[in-house]
Amino acid sequence: MxxxxxxxHMRRPVITARAAATFEPVGRSVAAARTFVRDTLQGWGLxxxxxxxxxxxxxxxxxxxxxxxxxxxxxxxxxxxxxRVEVADRYPEREVPLQSNGGHHFGNPDREGGRGLLLCxxxxxxxxxxxxxxxxxxxxxxxxxxxxxxxxxxxxxxxSSALPIADAxxxxxxxxxxxxxxxxxxxxxxxxxxxxxxxQVIGKPLTDLAAWPHTPGTGTxxxxxLLLSRWEGSYGIxxxxxxxxxxxxxxxxxRDAEGEPxxxxxxVRERERAVLQSPMRGAxxxxxxxxxxxxxxxxxxxxxxxxxxxxLDGLLQRTVERARDMLDGDAAYLLLATDDETELEVRASTxxxxxxxxxxxxxxxxxxxxxxxxxxxxxxxxLSAVPGAVPLLVNTGMRSVxxxxxxxxGRLTGSLGVAAESPARYSNEExxxxxxxxxxxxxxxxxxxxxxLERLRRGSLSFLVEASDLLAGTLDRDQxxxxxxxxxxxxxxxxxxxxxxADQASEPELSYVLHEDEDxxxxxxxxxxxxxxxxxxxxxxxxxxxxxxxxxxxxALRTSLRSLSLGDSARPSSGxxxxxxxxxxxxxxxxxxxxxxxxxxxxxxILGKPTDEHFRQENLELAEDxxxxxxxxxxxxRLYSERTAISQSLQRSLLPPEQPEVPGVExxxxxxxxxxxxxxxxxxxxxxxxxxxAYGFAIGDVCGTGPEAAAVTGLARHALRxxxxxxxxxxxxxxxxxxxxxxxGARSRFLTLLYGxxxxxxxxxxxxxxxxxxxxxPLRLRQDGSVEAAAEPQPLLGVMEDxxxxxxxxxxxxxxxxxxxxxxxxxxxxxxxxxxxxxxIDVLTTCTGLTAGAVxxxxxxxxxxxxxxxxxxxxxxxxxxxxxxxDS
Length: 888
Prior knowledge:
Oligomer: single chain
Mean pLDDT: 78
CATH class of the largest domain: Alpha Beta
Helix content: 25-40%
Protein name: PAS domain S-box-containing protein
Low-confidence stretches: 1-9, 94-114, 214-219, 280-306, 568-576
GO biological process, one term: regulation of DNA-templated transcription
Pfam families: GAF, GAF_3, HATPase_c_2, PAS, SpoIIE
InterPro entries: Bact_Sigma-Reg (IPR052016), GAF (IPR003018), GAF-like_dom_sf (IPR029016), HATPase_C_sf (IPR036890), HATPase_dom (IPR003594), PAS (IPR000014), PAS-like_dom_sf (IPR035965), PAS_fold (IPR013767)
Shape: elongated
Keywords: Hydrolase
């Protein structure tokens, strides 16, 4: 027993694979580390332990890059007994919870420090902490789960409640279709499922029964599916009753003893799809035949027989891992073709710096001859003899490489390559093996790519709908710029800048800068301010811009050289850190998208990635769609701002200039125009000197609101001033104004107007001569608190041609107040209640002894408090008070 234990624990595990990556001390590195570990373990086929490994890695990398603030080295090691993951940081002095004799003491599990070790203790089979002079390394090991002998894959034991639901008897229809697509066999379960007896369907095409496709987005037809070696999916079978029954189907292409091909279709009800989707459905049906021929199963055949990962990235990562293992290479990569087949985009790699290569693009036709085209297999025996022949492998140490195309129905869909550090490693024999594997995997990759593309398009549509709603919700230029940047960062890019162009003759102006790390915004903005903006190109599409990269790296180099020349004792306090950080932030791909609206370039949207990162083609296409919507929203905001400025300028010209000081009389005016953005409405007021010792005042209300009423307002105010200063009395002024309004024809409006002339007297009183043309009567507040009307009503203006108006004289004694308002005050409503003349009088009686400003403010407060809703009508309040001797 002791010898067996010693032998078990002394045996060193056999390492079968290794992957490593380094992550910078920024918050997004935690997500990148999770993706690295997940992709690596899925590529190794270790889906059973992926989740635990990702959780533990996330906690340990968080401790390194967030709390310790250093880079994190992550190493994944696959052995014959399990997987070991090591996370190392550059902060060995950081406190680590210790293990005492009584067990682990980690403190509060919610505390940031030590939580990763608490999870290690709970999830890992073994874990530990190791120190060096410069590093601290935390490692954990996850053992492979035990499986019954001979089982390729097995699910965990589940309670009955978690098992798939099916009918009491599961019927599996077996339908055999010959090489011409005609049904040759139809079992009893198929008859029970669809209602057809065998003699009714045998000899008929399956296409007559299949309602294809049942699954939305399926692009493969029934004829194509029957020619594939293996196919699974959903469609519908039209039963004898005319109804379409949704089914889940598994097709297998076989060959009989005479060599004639046919297809066996297994059909179950859609809700019972788990019967055919179980991992065991992929058992190798050709095992006996292979063993008879003495052929070993190829690594890719094992892969094809296994359940493929659900996501495209997982499938591609597993593909490159298996390709590298199959040819005993040091690195492998897989590229997918763009829709127009002009470029290839790196989507998965192993043994290469994936962060630098991911989503990089290379042309399909890189040169003349077969070795310059990705459409043909190629073997490079020594890359040092042809530098740059494979751009992805430059400065990677790889010497030989074999590449093969991935094709579906004759169309190029991708390229698969395996490289080695030694020259002359590969020959045409390896190219044939790799091409055979690529042919086997090409269709699965294309299906997964189309599925991902559909998902991305749906996500893009949702993103654009939300973006359109947000952009349409504002007409403010600055807010539109902010929304443009916030929608792109970090969804589409790591940083963003917006240049705007005022007119064709103007240079682009940097208007907004945003980075996913707020600490980088100031440095990025300063960098962009120092360099020339990109050239304005009205053509659509994203184009590369190297300006930020070149300027940032030149600045970082100068700063570093300056720091070295000054020496340690005189080194600047900031050092090269800020410049290097900015250079890293803009070190990846940078693209320029023109903002074109109404056939005019109004700006440019700049999107950038950090060091060595590239944009996905789908993200660039989405950014182009967003830029078109954003350009129109920005131009609408510009037009709205210009028109608002014009409107406000015109409206301000209709308002009186500065209110004159009237000796011996307090005057207060409060004016509110109804409607958003309106400074002038149908109500107006004016107070102006006529001649020495005499002042004119007016308060009026034009029928209606908005610009039309404001036009009559301007006519009335300017006509009053002109006529009064020509020496006309009050009745003559209003009669001539009435004629001017009627001359406007269809543009004329009814007008109520209270006009008067004011003469301050030497004895402290004031004499007023007023004409009230259809306007609410002015109210006079005496010192004893009594309130009375100060004029009589007369006809309003803009109705009749011949008016006979007269003026009335009012004397305000010291302490008296004259209050003039428009009907926006008296007609203030809440439901059926209205403030009215009586309500206004009640408010005014409480104003005895108040100044003119206090009287106007109290009336306004009473109007606002009368109803919960904001006022919907224009409103003007004019209060004049003759102060008592003590006041002055």
